[in-house]
Amino acid sequence: MDATIELRHELHRYPELSGTEVETARRIVQFFEPLSPDTILKNLGGSGVAVVFSGTMPGPTVLLRAELDALPIQESNSMPYCSTKSGVAHKCGHDGHMAILAAVGRELVTERPAKGRVILLFQPAEETGAGAAAVIADPRFTEITPDYVFALHNLPSFPLGQVAMRSGSFASASRGMAIRLQGKPAHAAQPETGLSPALAMAQIIEKLSAMPADIAASEEVAFATVVGARLGKKAFGTAPGEAEIWVTLRSETDASMAAIVAYAEEVVTAIATRYALEATLGYSDIFAATINSEAANAIIRRSIVENFIIELERPFRWSEDFGRFTALAEGAIFGIGSGIGTPELHSNNYDFPDELIAPAAQIFMRIIAQILTELD
Known about the structure:
Elements: H1 3-13, H2 22-32, E1 39-44, E2 48-54, E3 57-67, H3 94-110, E4 115-123, H4 131-137, E5 148-155, E6 163-165, E7 168-171, E8 173-182, E9 186-187, H5 198-209, E10 222-231, E11 238-239, E12 242-251, H6 254-274, E13 278-287, E14 290-292, H7 294-301, E15 309-311, H8 323-326, E16 330-337, H9 357-375
Parallel strand pairs: 3-4, 3-5, 5-16, 6-15
Antiparallel strand pairs: 1-2, 2-4, 6-16, 7-14, 8-12, 8-13, 9-11, 10-12
Helix pairs in contact: 1-3, 3-9, 5-6
């Protein structure tokens, strides 16, 4: 079996959640050390790993990124390399993305760049939106500051190997909004002596779920999804005094995200004030929109057989923290089909197809060749 497929299966057996990818990173380092890259940076932005292959002459730095983390999902598959960790599995294909960069690394051993550098970055905590920012904030990131950045994401329901591209917004901005309403509990026989958040909670959910269409830029998709809520406890003698609502805000651009955040905060404040409640807001899992440059997309297009490309009309609704990198350097992320009929991402029976590793690695190798030989 090919060493990169063996690596993927090993990574799949031992998945780790965002921010805890210590053993995953160790396995990546263990794979690359025998290949003798010029540098391996460890513990970058947490558990991140950057593998550096340098040419003998100065030139651009090309950074390719894969993700280390898995998801809190119980796997339902029965293949020999199933997850050994209860409730944790690689259900977004990050094990496959890492294997693709491993295949690129093996190619670079024999096709080392004559000039410039190639950085293979294995980034932590993509699923929470915290990893890219942590890597960039690490002082050692200045040692590998890229001129170009590229990444890919596998796409179920697309033909195997087909590349999906889009200039501008490729993946949406999103953030989790936590709303806490504080009132005053009371005896259920005398609810008027307390301050129940029940009506306020219902009105906030209704208002945010029916966000005005004109709040975002023209024809842009922007919306809120209520993902959970809690009101009081199962105590029939007590009227509740507190409530929580959890909402995901999503938009195609950062400008529209700012608008819907302002709208949501205004709604919560106004309704809480109406019912004399104290409202507290918090945010987590913050993703900026991932913006692809046309110049970087042109490089990708020249690396792919034309009939294997599909131009997307709209950005994907899911989010990606790779936008942190495309905000710093010329870059783009593209999608690559993992097969018609493949289970969707984040489903409990999803598994990355091994046959995608080699062709995806070859696309990256052609991207590298263009930048380090033709463009500089």
